[in-house]
Amino acid sequence: MKETMQTVLHVAKPGLKVSKRNFINLLLFFTFYTVLIIMGFDLLGNSKFAILDLLFILLFIFGPTWFKAKGMQFQKISGDMWGFPAVVMNLHLPINGKIVVWKTLFIYFLSSIPFQLYMLLMVYLFNPDIRGILEPGSYIAFALIWLSFGIYGGLAALSLEVVVYKIPSGKMISVLSVLLVILGIAVILFFPYIFENSIVGWSAILADRWSIASGIISIILAIVGLRYWSNKMTEHLYEVDYL
């Protein structure tokens, strides 16, 4: 295990080196949205307020991947094939595919958990409304719910990074992508009208009423999500001929 981790760190070094500016941008990005969330948390009393849902879902799933260095971004590999060059280059090395997966996970966690924790801590320290809604123990459960979501939800999106895509020509794929995004946003915005509270609101309610159970279930979901998506990413590596 120690040797595996040393190999992961060695393979990750080039990615970490080019990601220094990425981490600065992430800090500024999360700081900006932390201010917005602090200003908006007093609206939790309004069960139909769903903008916080959009912010939280974006931050915990897509936020960590928005400031990738150019060489680590989704781009054309050759012809009509698109993917992530860093992954393809790693597979030219004499290493096991699992090392590539764990390297990808390692960089992702460095780009997500520290900044998400920072955001959650600042929100609690600087917003009296959330402190009035959730006591420290309940807020820890609330934080675990969202950090867990950032793992099993975020890794679901991250798993796409180890797949090479053949993108068809024409406008149909763009239209379908836009429609999918609109559908996702619509579901989030209408969620409170169907279930009587926003997603963030429900997570706060669960954390407040069942703190211990919510925390334990969140940790279990995070572990299951990590195992599932790491195995899925490894399968993707061996299903596609990258070389």
How would you characterize the overall build of this protein?
With 243 residues, this protein is mainly α. Helices cover 74% and strands 4% of the residues. It has ten helices and three strands, in the order H-H-H-E-E-H-H-H-H-E-H-H-H. The chain has helices spanning 2-18, 20-40, 51-62, 85-90, 97-126, 128-133, 136-158, 172-195, 199-209, 211-239; strands at residues 75-78, 81-83, 165-166. A three-stranded antiparallel beta sheet has the order 1-2-3. Strand 1 and strand 2 form a beta hairpin. Helix 3 packs across helix 7 (136-158). The radius of gyration is 19 Å and the shape is globular. The mean pLDDT is 76.
Outline:
This protein is mainly alpha-helical. It has helices at 2-18, 20-40, 51-62, 85-90, 97-126, 128-133, 136-158, 172-195, 199-209, 211-239; strands spanning 75-78, 81-83, 165-166. The mean pLDDT is 76.
